[in-house]
Amino acid sequence: MRVKVPAFAKLNLDLRVLHKRPDGYHELRTIFQTISLKDTLTIEFERARQTELTLDSAIEIPDNLVLRAARAVLNELKISARIHFRLEKRIPMGAGLGGGSSDAASVLLALPALAGKQIEIGELSRIAASLGSDVPFFLYGGTALGLGRGTELYPLPDLPPLSAVVVATGVHVSTAEAYRALNRPVRGDVSTKVTTALTSADELRILGEFQTIAWEVGCARPGQLAFRNDFEAPVFINHPGLALLVKKLRRLGAEPARMTGSGSAIFGMFSSQKKAQSAALRLGTEIASPVRFLPRAQYLAIWQRALGMTAAPRRSAR
Ligand code: C5P
């Protein structure tokens, strides 16, 4: 059996990092949004006595999440199979666009359908979270609120297919280093002394601001929003060119313009696709792509078309 499935990119429209938790992850608040930019994964699948996984990609992919996701699904289904993946990469890597995470989620969605089986969505989310903090979001897509590590997800009303430009300069930011550079205090562990700047009062203020943003997004008024990304300050110090790009996007009419995830891709929202296209041309199509927000209904419909109706994530009966 052979299928061709998409792996869409995401933006963090807003991203705030609160404190470091005793488990080493940071507590965050974010608003995720899937966009039309995508990788394509072709999967050839056959049941076999012994598992054999191969991946063909023009780009060398370190710590490959596609193969790890495949092993996790086979393990969960208690089956063995010969699977060949061909990955056509369009989403820049190490850019905060969730490319690797989305590739992994696509494997989690596709393999059970190819095996003629189902994994209940709660279980699939648990497997997704074990692969990476951004992976669970791609099981759902659309506009969503991410809490905790970013793996606790709640749907927000879908934003319409708004126009945006994504600019990826090739600057690679390590997510773990970006978190370290924030130097957030550890909370939730009484044995640790809190020494850094962010106080409980700061957190309350940040939470208040984030709540306002989430309500505004829920009311579909993103154009008027003062989105924020806590990673911008530390990342822009090391890469001042990125701050200039944000300014350039704003001069070209983007409102708002921000970095996504821990960087380094920048996005700007535009009032029309025509304006987004002309801004992308001005910035240079080698680094800038016009995209559209991809609402959840469309995201799931594309998946259902790719795999047949049974492939949509299934809610627990519990
Ligand atoms: O979960 P993921 O593998 O994507 O995370 C990569 C790294 O980013 C983690 O090892 C951790 O250092 C950091 N991280 C974090 N808090 C989060 C998510 C990621 O500190 N909420």
Structural features:
318 residues; alpha+beta; 4-stranded antiparallel beta sheet; 34% helix; globular; binds cytidine-5'-monophosphate
Please summarize what this structure is.
The protein has 318 residues and is α+β, with helices and mostly antiparallel strands. The protein has helices spanning 65-77, 99-114, 121-131, 175-182, 200-218, 232-238, 240-251, 273-283, 296-307, and strands at residues 2-20, 26-47, 52-57, 81-88, 143-147, 152-155, 163-167, 257-259, 266-270, 288-292.
Which structural class fits the helix and strand makeup?
Answer: alpha+beta
User: Which range best describes the helical content: under 10%, 10-25%, 25-40%, 40-55%, 55-70% or over 70%?
Assistant: 25-40%
Largest sheet: 6 strands, mixed
Q: List the ions, cofactors and other small molecules found in this model.
A: cytidine-5'-monophosphate
Question: What is the rounded distance between the termini?
Answer: 32 Å
Compressed to H and E, one letter per element, the order equals EEEHEHHEEEHHHHEEHEH
Helical segment tally?
9
Structure characterization notes:
The strands form two sheets. Strands 1, 2, 3, 4, 5 and 6 form a six-stranded mixed β-sheet that branches. Strands 8-9-7-10 form a four-stranded antiparallel β-sheet, with helices on one face. It has helices at residues 65-77, 99-114, 121-131, 175-182, 200-218, 232-238, 240-251, 273-283, 296-307; strands at 2-20, 26-47, 52-57, 81-88, 143-147, 152-155, 163-167, 257-259, 266-270, 288-292. The chain contains nine helices and ten strands. The model is unreliable at 309-318 (pLDDT under 50). Strand 1 and strand 2 (26-47) form a beta hairpin. Helix 6 (232-238) crosses helix 7. The chain is of the alpha+beta class. Cytidine-5'-monophosphate (C5P) binds at residues 25-26, 28, 132-134, 149-150, 175-176, 179.
